[in-house]
Amino acid sequence: MKEVSIVLCGEAGQGIATVEQLVTGMLKLSGYHVYSTSEFMSRIRGGTNSTLIRISDEKSRSAFIDRIDILFPLSSKALKHLEHRISPETIIIGEEGNIAEEYCPNKANIIKVDFTKIANEIGGKIYTNIVSVGIFLALFGVEGNISKAYLTKKFSPKGDTILQNNIKACHRGIEIGNQMLEDGKLKIDLQKDDSVKNYLTLNGSQAIAMGSIAAGLNFISSYPMSPSTGVLIFLSQKAEDFGIIIDQAEDEIAAVNKGIGAWYAGARAMITTSGGGFALMTEGLSLSGILETPMVFHIAQRPGPGTGLPTRTGQEDLQFVLNGGHGEFARAIFAPGNAEEAFFLTQHAFNLADKYQVPVFILSDQFLVDSHYSLPDLDLTNIKNTKYIEKTDENYKRYLLTENGISPRGIPGYGSGLVNVDSDEHDEEGHITEDVHDLRPKMVDKRLYKKLKLLKEDFVKPELIGPADYSILLIGWGSTYSAVKEALELSNRKDVAFLHFKQVYPLSEDTIDYLKKAKKVVVVENNATAQFGKVITLEFNIKPDQFLKYNGMPFSVEEVKEFIEKI
Fold first, then answer.
1. 375-408 burial by CB neighbour count: b if 16+ within 10 A, else e?
2. Within a domain: residue 415?
3. What is the pLDDT of residue 290?
4. Whose CB among 75, 365, 377, 498 lies 3.0–4.6 Å from 465's, allowing a Cys bridge?
């Protein structure tokens, strides 16, 4: 077996996230490729949550899969919740009260462990999950010094008693796991890779935050909103190290306006929010458009409308982001497919916003930002930040009409010129104008068509996966990347390729060459209306077929593979 898929499932508040954090960290330090992703209800207590952990001795695959090799049910509702994913091959390890046998297709694969009794003997029910951590570690041969050091780092701030009890609980779990191996109830044969020990383990939120730091971010103003808040939290933790001003604004309207003001003053700023928060920011977005002030937005999508499913995933805000803000002006939208892309596209977004004086979006989703990825050190060789700020003189004109549409950008206090901006239509110096016959059309052309032309020329090319002589082309964007890529690799089709878009707007005219080559084009999206498919139709007059999912869950590799094989 080259990979093991393990799922923990229980109620909110049972510490599943803690187990995920401990296990992924220790397994990585032991030389395993690890990927994890969670699905959880929007409740502090109760409900049913689960975490998928994929452990491999090859490069980890960062996609959601339905297959469960080993399942730890931590509540009586867990098996019913995961009924559709449990197979005769699934090994179930749990307390008798949590194993409803009607949901177990193979009774021989049930291993009963009295976690609560063991935890109470150590010091209380609170240690139940650490016993399961110990079983994890035994199954994969994690060395004791790694577990002790990791637990010490995690629990020593809580006092020596809690630390020692956690160590005891973990040790007891290791004994149980070793016994399972000796009895032949479980057999895991994965090879360790020492190079993995130096890999990074980070989630999508951290990757986006790190990308913004790499871009020179020094100001962020946001109002917390799931699932985007992880970016704000990470940056606040690193603020002193990197000289970042963190402002938790009173609302989203204040946040976007503060960000615009920071860019006007010469800072590099970003806001992070979700669709409902962005709804309040659209007037500020339009302000950025007419001021020609750079701005970077991170929008972590979740299913709507309204509050919708605040802890689930979806790709429902592309058209909203594309058309948000009154009036007509250029913008760029990036959609990373994994943590590595999230880092580099975020860094690129700042330079693009600065260069062309436009709002730029990083469009992620709950699945991407809350998934944990294991990847080699990020190659920073080509990371370069260029600030497009010019020193002004007494003849400075903020909105000077130029051939390419980009005016010299000055900031207050840098030079002797006056940096005059206005939210009304304005002339080259920034003064209000009512010249609708000559100046107004020139300013619209400047803000819209000329900048769109430049953004298309600076296009981040899509990635083609699969045969070059395809007849069927799958199209995806954002976090559908990993599931479609893995499904395509596992399928037997030699005529199907996958085109993954990292930039979803504006699209380069070169893109049409990929589309025209195919006899059939199919767009794969986590929404009900094929929103990127509409962009393709609008840009190239090609209407793709659709493979859509909009129940709040990401695509699984298995369902995409099944679709590919049936095309």
1. beebeeeeeeeeeeeeebeeebbbbeeeeebbbb
2. no
3. 98
4. 498
Tell me how far apart the alpha carbons of residues 81 and 144 are, in angstroms, rounded to a whole number: 34
One domain for residues 97 and 133? yes
> Three-class SS of residue 524?
strand
Q: Residue 360 in contact with residue 352, Cβ under 8 Å?
A: yes
**What is the Cα 298 distance to its own chain's centre?**
10
**DSSP 8-state symbol, 426:** B
Count CB-CB contacts under 10 A for residue 120: 14
Sheet containing 545-548, strands listed edge to edge, beginning at the edge strand earlier in sequence? 463-465, 496-501, 472-477, 520-525, 545-548
CATH number at residue 181: 3.40.920.10
Q: Domain for residue 269, yes or no?
A: yes
Do residues 25 and 125 share a domain?
A: yes
Number of domains in the chain: 3
Which range of residues forms the domain containing residue 519?
463-566
Among 16, 83, 27, smallest CA distance to 54 is for 27
Average pLDDT, the chain: 95
SS3 per-residue string spanning 136-147: HHHHCCCCHHHH
Query: Residue 12: pLDDT above 90?
Result: no
Note the pLDDT tens digit of each residue in 149-167. Answer: 999 999 999 999 999 999 9
Does residue 419 fall inside a structural domain? no
What tens digit of pLDDT does each residue of 289-340 get?
A: 999 999 999 999 999 999 999 999 999 999 999 999 999 999 999 999 999 9
H or E element, residue 236: helix 229-237
Residue 399 maps to a domain: no
Distances 237 to 230, 386, 538 between C-alpha atoms, Å? 11, 26, 43
270 and 300 both lie in a single domain? yes
Interhelix angle for 115-122 vs 160-183, to 10°? 140
